[in-house]
Amino acid sequence: MDEYEKAAWLAVAEKYNLKQLAYGNGKSYQFPPHWSNGWIAEMRPAPGLFVSSAWFTPNQKITHTVNVSKPCMWIFCVDCGEVIYSQQGKPARCLTPMNHVIINPQKQFRFTFPKDIHACFTSVLVFDDFIQSFLQAREEKTRMGITDAMDWESENYNTPNTMLILEQIRWGVRNMDMPLLGFEGMVLHLLASIARNAPEVPKRRSHRRNYVTWENEQKVFHVKTEMDQDILNVPPVSELAKRAGMSESKFRLSFKNIYGIPLYHYIQREIMKRAMQFLSEDHLSIRDIAERCGYQNAAKFAAAFKKIHGITPREFRKAFNL
Question: What is the per-residue pLDDT for 30?
Answer without folding.
Answer: 96
